[in-house]
């Protein structure tokens, strides 16, 4: 306890989580943009696991899909995620007022019933929810005071009873510095002294103990974030070096859902494409049921994002049904976008096999059905249009059955496969790590040789992992950094160019088996 540490000499131990070390080479970390139950606003928070998410942002909420997607992300193997909570500018935190005791207006001293000996700095405090929104409406707070605590000094205990979350106990607080202690220890509330004057000291100590009436926080409100908030969030998330996958499960809840989500998606995809080391994931609207509607959706996105920018966007359809403990017996399932579950699958396969493996033909966990089914020919049409289907097979569960980006394969074949894009993202991050320390070195043959060696080491690792095709390394990649690439004019401007050529291994999407029956009546299966 804070009071004990300050008053009694001795040796004390305190458990503290280590500061997370940024690992910019990882490509398995996802960033989520959207509305959550509570938590800090407009800044990405690094989360390690579902329990950690609940501590910071609360649990599931009926008003948004982001929390359900985060739960699916971690259930499918995601380890680390960045979460950026959004609200519209019109929001407020729930509040209540705690009157510690009354002050005599003439003498400016505590009245006889007040805890005068406690050392309170203020006679009245505002209790404010730790973050804005409606989540804290109805939260109850109970204060208990003792003139002589375990350490012989005045102490205060606080019980916080949030709605639909566990009770929080703050025991052994020192009344003199309540605001700081509550800020450090409470997930749910903050205190702010609001007395117009500090109570003058008195000659009596007041009661030995006190317990105030339970207080209930009210008047918290929020509105769904709009286009401006989502665009700013996209810019902020693009600056996070660890994030390699970006999703916004609640983007279709924006005002004007026929226009604003697609303007945001264009900005998000532009940010991911410009960074060269991350991928945006999106689900088609839940209202898209027919193949014609899916085709039209793809054509519209290509018009919104020209010049092959859609290579940085992977689309999944249909939506999936997940268990919803908030729905009760009437609505036990909730239909949500599949992007959170898919991001968790990609994250897990990235760590198990590598970024160059196609995140497909794998089972999704924490989901029980799909929102809309397609027959086999229609699934083929979806894949040919760049949409990765989520299929449901009897006895097999839900599977991702596609590994393509949304790019036009006829115009930009090099950006077709998601595995190729993620391989490039991995290489870009590795190259940045080895090349950035060389900035400001002398631009000459020694620097060129260093770059060639570093790039060759990176590509050789990728080749040995099976990410590149070819019987020998020289067939899989080529690195060049010499005087022909770096003439005197470019060197005078402080530039150095290094050219890399790679041959990624192509995913096997179609397997053809030829079956022949001989005259003798034997069956032969001949490979492709």
From TrEMBL:
Pfam families with a match to the protein in the record: Phage_sheath_1
Record-annotated Tail sheath protein subtilisin-like domain positions: 309-406
InterPro entries given in the database record: Phage_sheath_subtilisin (IPR035089), Tail_sheath_structural (IPR052042)
Superkingdom, natural source: Bacteria
Family (UniProt): Belongs to the myoviridae tail sheath protein family.
PANTHER family given in the database record: PHAGE TAIL SHEATH PROTEIN (PTHR35861:SF1), PTHR35861
Protein name, entry field: Phage tail protein
């Amino acid at each position: 306890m804070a009071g004990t540490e300050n008053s009694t000499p001795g040796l004390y131990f305190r458990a503290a989580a280590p500061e997370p070390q940024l690992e910019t080479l990882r490509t398995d970390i996802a960033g989520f943009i959207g509305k959550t139950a509570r938590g800090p606003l407009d800044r990405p928070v690094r989360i390690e696991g579902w329990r950690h998410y609940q501590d910071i942002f609360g649990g599931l909420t009926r008003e948004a899909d982001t929390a359900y997607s985060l739960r699916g992300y971690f259930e499918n193997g995601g380890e680390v995620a960045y979460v950026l909570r959004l609200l519209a500018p019109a929001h407020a935190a729930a509040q209540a007022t705690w009157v510690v005791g009354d002050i005599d207006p003439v003498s400016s001293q505590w009245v006889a019933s007040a805890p005068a000996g406690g050392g309170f700095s203020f006679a009245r405090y505002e209790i404010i929810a730790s973050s804005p929104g409606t989540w804290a409406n109805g939260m109850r707070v109970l204060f208990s005071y003792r003139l002589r605590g375990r350490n012989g000094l005045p102490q205060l205990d606080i019980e916080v009873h949030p709605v639909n979350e566990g009770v929080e106990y703050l025991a052994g607080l020192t009344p003199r510095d309540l605001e700081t202690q509550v800020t450090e220890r409470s997930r749910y509330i903050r205190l702010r002294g609001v007395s117009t004057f500090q109570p003058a000291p008195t000659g009596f100590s007041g009661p030995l103990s006190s317990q105030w009436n339970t207080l209930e926080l009210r008047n918290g409100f929020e509105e769904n974030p709009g286009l401006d908030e989502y665009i700013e969030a996209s810019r902020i998330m693009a600056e996070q070096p660890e994030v390699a996958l970006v999703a916004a499960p609640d983007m279709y809840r924006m005002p004007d859902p026929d226009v604003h989500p697609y303007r945001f998606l264009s900005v998000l995809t532009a940010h991911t494409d410009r960074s060269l080391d991350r991928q945006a994931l999106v689900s088609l609207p839940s209202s898209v049921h027919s193949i014609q509607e899916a085709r039209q959706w793809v054509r519209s996105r290509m018009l919104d994002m020209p010049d092959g920018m859609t290579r940085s966007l992977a689309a999944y359809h249909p939506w999936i049904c997940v268990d919803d403990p908030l729905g009760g017996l009437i609505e036990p399932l909730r239909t949500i976008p599949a992007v959170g579950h898919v991001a968790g699958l990609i994250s897990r396969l990235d760590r198990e096999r590598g970024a160059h493996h196609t995140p497909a033909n794998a089972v999704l966990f924490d989901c029980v059905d799909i929102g809309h089914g397609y027959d086999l020919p229609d699934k083929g049409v979806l894949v040919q249009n760049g949409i990765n289907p989520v299929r449901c097979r009897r006895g097999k569960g839900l599977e991702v059955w596609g590994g393509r980006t949304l790019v036009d394969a006829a115009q930009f074949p090099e950006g077709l496969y998601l595995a190729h894009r993620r391989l490039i993202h991995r290489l870009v991050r590795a190259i940045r790590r080895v090349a950035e320390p060389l900035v400001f070195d002398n631009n000459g043959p020694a620097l060129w040789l260093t770059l060639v060696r570093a790039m060759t080491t990176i590509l050789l690792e990728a080749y040995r992992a099976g990410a590149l095709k070819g019987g020998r390394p020289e067939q899989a990649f080529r690195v060049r950094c010499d005087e022909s690439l770096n003439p005197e004019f470019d060197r005078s401007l402080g530039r150095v160019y290094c050219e890399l050529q790679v041959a990624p291994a192509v995913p096997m999407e179609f397997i053809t088996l030829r079956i022949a029956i001989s005259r003798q009546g034997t069956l032969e299966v001949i490979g492709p």
